[in-house]
TrEMBL record:
One of its GO terms (biological process) is pyridine nucleotide biosynthetic process. Keywords: Hydrolase, Metal-binding, Pyridine nucleotide biosynthesis. The keyword Hydrolase applies. Its EC number is 3.5.1.19. Residues 4-193 form the Isochorismatase-like domain. Belongs to the isochorismatase family. It comes from Cryobacterium fucosi. GO terms for molecular function: metal ion binding; nicotinamidase activity. This is nicotinamidase. The keyword Cell wall biogenesis/degradation does not apply.
Amino acid sequence: MTRALFIIDVQNDFTEGGALAVEGGSAVAAGVSALLAGHPNAYGCVFASRDWHDPDSDNGGHFAPSGEPDHSETWPVHCVAGTQGAEYHPALTLPEHTIHIRKGQGEAGYSIFDGVSAGGDKTGELLITNGVTDVDIVGLATDHCVRASGLDALEHGQHLRVLTDLIAGVNPEASEAALAELAHAGAVLATSDVVA
């Protein structure tokens, strides 16, 4: 049994001061770093995803072309490939062996399973290659990319734990609904105290 950690979109544009800031995002970055520092052998694999949107398109309608984004299907411009906003938050310290996943290139790309590694491998393939059976998930935002990534992990047969003290959402009610949906689908809701 190999346990992996999914770190979802802990990026400058999703934390305080960013283009699409999530309240508590900076605290999540620091908390994830503390978890990894305190439990360096807890995970056989660490995956970190980033939105990495194309600069010269609306990324499949993901960026609002004009007027106000609806913050459901369309969003302000964020996490454009190669910009400071797309970089990991400075408080996030990742292990050297982290598998970096870029998603949302020309599309919305909410789930870590929508992205690929630097070598072009899909997340699902990398889980199989590395013998991963269990996944802990942390990051941003609870009601969007954490939700989508968690549901896809369950679809891929993973035993999923959502570490609820290391996530933050855009909308409190939608975040609660997302956690309920994940639990109903088979995820375990826990805090990072369970990590050994």
